[in-house]
Amino acid sequence: MSPGLAETALKHNFVGLHKLITNLKPPGQRTGQISRGDVASTKQDNQGRVPAGVPGLDLQALSPSERLEAIARRLEEIAATMADTDYLELLWRGVKMCAEKCEKETSDWVWRNLSLFAYRVATSDPATYSYDEAIQVHRLAIEEVPEANTYTRLSDLLQARGDTEEAYEATTQAMTQESTDPDVLTELGRQHHNAKNWGASLEAFEKAYSLDPNNDGALNNMIYLRKRVCKWESMDALEQRLATRTHAAQKAYFDGGDEVEGVRNGQVNAHPWVFLYLPFSAYLKRRTAEMYNTVLSQNSAVLSPSIHSHAASVAKQIQKLRKEYAQGGGFKRRLRVGFVSSDFRRKATSYLCHRLFEHFDREVLEVFIYATYPDEKGGSEWVKVIREGAEHYVDLHTMPAEKMVERMRKDKPDILLDMDGYANEGERANTLSIARIAPIQIMYFVYMGTLGSKYIDYIITDNVATPPHLALAHTEKLLVMPSTFFPNSMPTMMPLNTPDPRPRHISQNWEGLPAGRFVLCSFNKHLKIDPGLFQVWLNVLVRVPTAVLWLLRFPAQSEDALREIANQRQYGLSSRIFFSNFVDSWQENFRRLKLADLVLDTTVYGAHTGAVDVLWAGVPLLTCMGSYCGDTLDDHQSVPEEAATFNFDHMATRVASSMLVAANLSQDLVVHNMEDYFNQAVRLASDQPYYDHVHTQVKAARTEAGAVWDGRQYARRFTHSLQLAWENLLSGEPPRHIYADKENLLLE
């Protein structure tokens, strides 16, 4: 066949080959998305392994045809090791043709498909074909054919390698090429989100969704960001659509149906962390977590297979322990307990629990701290206290996931506690939720929902945060502590006799608050505020003319939207809403909380760290707990009978109630429906003698409610709960719901 005829034949197959490569899905890989596990693999490449590539070859120094041949030769070698890639022969023929001479259209086709195949290989097996090499191929392809999809894939690869700024630039370049591609717009939205450009991020997701209403990634992120900036128009309808499509995705994923194309291949756009903030049933949130975790586990089996290699040794460890226990050997040594977190730094986790570890009895527990993220502030005071309080502090942050697991297994822990979950928008290593590393693995304290993982045996909670009827919301068994499960370090951080450097009237002026008014306050981020709740707050302002509402600019972009909604409720009402900037100083934040008269909790996702601050400041906190604190948007026809009574009520809504019940303050500050919430807020804001009575009780509870504020008492209750779980394992029983206030140890 003559070269001209060969090129003509090649052109007839342009579209078909591109579709075949696009649909190439290595086992467990999420099409078009790079998972957290991929990032770990890239770090491993950068920790001393030589990236895969053409050794010693500088592609930039070669002529265009030589570059093309070198890249193709490398990729052809990899393709030879893969199954069902015979169709790529067409691509190799195109390379040989263009290495000599071909038309621009053919050359563009070759570069487009070479870079696409490089992306597919790198995202499925970065150990064989590194991100660095795939990035280089994409840069060269862009020199030849600067198309939006190539820029988008380059952005994805750069993001996985950790180059956020370069990824954003690549996405911006994609936008200049083609601003009507939903996938490009979705990627742009992600990049703006990473840069905390909420408005620009939302605009990109909204445009992507308008172009493709079946783009679940755009829908999911659009709803999340609209809530974040309080853009609530049509929110109910959007949330209902997301719930319906997520139910369909779950059916397709778990039951093998085909309701949502691509779901079986792992295109899961519903993130369990985002879903905690949405008014969906606890059942839907659980199934979302299960689906998400299944994908994480599948990815890890491909990208980090050695993580899963420890299950057999853990099983032998358990078998040996049980045999010794059954033979009457008891359990003579200390319990080896590890706490795994990326937040042993200047984060809320360390703020709350840094004093916990020094209260553990070293004759009973041997405590290991595993830090998976650097303390970027340079050794904060909290980390110093944690290091001193724990017997072992192990810094894992420079290690890829496989090495983290190996290092933890070296210590042979009996119990490991995951203090990350899917928190912080899911940017965590998630090693405990995807592999068996210790005989018992527990979710603790930070992520207020189920992980949906077969590897997490228990979640630590209490009877208020997770009553028995909510057990079905978790795949984990409940490890129920006596009194509140939520820790804090407030008595040592901010002793009650700490003087306030500024008098109250000066602080009020500082914050712009008017004197002589009753200050209703919520310092929760606006993502936690829903439209119905905000209307209740406005109704309280209307009923109590002397009241004002004090919020944070959290974020600042939502201030105008909230003021406009207030004026729609009553003209001029926005003048009674005051905003203060978020401050990165816990001391300053704590001091200004004392200016509030009553703090109003949110409902779908309540106050956690903020609740600790409010109660220790001696300020009343009003919360709503239970099924009637809001409306659940869900596709009830898709919910099985045993979960039909579920609504949005779940652990994340109940943390403040947990603390208030433990402090004996629930009679006046915990209500069970929104009508009572409104009435109680009005009463506290307008009945001064009643308010003074409640305020006195809250302040007194700081010294009288040891169940909330006594760190040593908390550590004893916590230890007892762990011992019960350990004893259950030694006795040969599978994990079960354990109520620590009702059971005694047999080993004592």
Automatic annotation (TrEMBL):
It holds the Pfam family Glyco_transf_41. Its EC number is 2.4.1.255. It comes from the Eukaryota. TPR repeats lie at residues 182-215. Residues 331-494, 509-624, 645-716 form the O-GlcNAc transferase C-terminal domain. Pathway: Protein modification; protein glycosylation. SUPFAM superfamilies: TPR-like. One of its GO terms (molecular function) is protein O-acetylglucosaminyltransferase activity. Residues 26-53 are annotated as: Disordered. Keywords: Glycosyltransferase, Repeat, TPR repeat, Transferase. It is an enzyme of class 2 (transferase). Belongs to the glycosyltransferase 41 family. O-GlcNAc transferase subfamily. This is protein O-GlcNAc transferase. It comes from Cymbomonas tetramitiformis.
